[in-house]
Amino acid sequence: MFIMIICALTCLIVTFMLVMISIVISKKSKNFRDKLIPFECGFNFFNPARMPFSMQFFLIAIIFIIFDVEIILMVPLITTIFKSSIFKWTTTSIIFLVILMLGIILEWKEKTFEWKK
Question: Where are the transmembrane segments (predicted)?
Answer without folding.
Answer: 6-25, 57-80, 86-108
